[in-house]
Predict the structure.
Amino acid sequence: MLTEDQLALLADDSLAFANVATVGPDGEPQNSPVWVSTDGEHVLFSLTTGRQKYRNLVADPRVALSILAPEDPYSYLEVRGTVTIEPDDDNAFIDAMARKYTEHDSYPWHQPGDERVVVHVKPEHTAGRIR
């Protein structure tokens, strides 16, 4: 369960990015930054179904995230858990992330044929220091 301080790092008024690590098909780790949010229970982020990270999570739902507070990089949250994935057919989630991080009303980098999903990370282990 996420604490109030941890939820604040993921809140709509926080511009913290998460570095998301997955396990690739050959066992190598793959890591990249994403925009994040929360529903109060899970850490949420968006992917397209054409990305390696999506394929990694479909094959192995284990994930680790590292989230630094933008105003204090010594304040951080690590989350390890498993994911569930749901479609973002109307792009509502990625558009909300675009409003949060870029102040655009909709995600400005859509590509033809992109299929978006929302990844829900169920925290099974958290660590870090939030000041």
User: Anything to note?
Assistant: The mean pLDDT is 95. The first strand starts at residue 17 and ends at 23. The two ends are 19 Å apart (CA to CA). Residues 92-102 form the longest helix (11 residues).
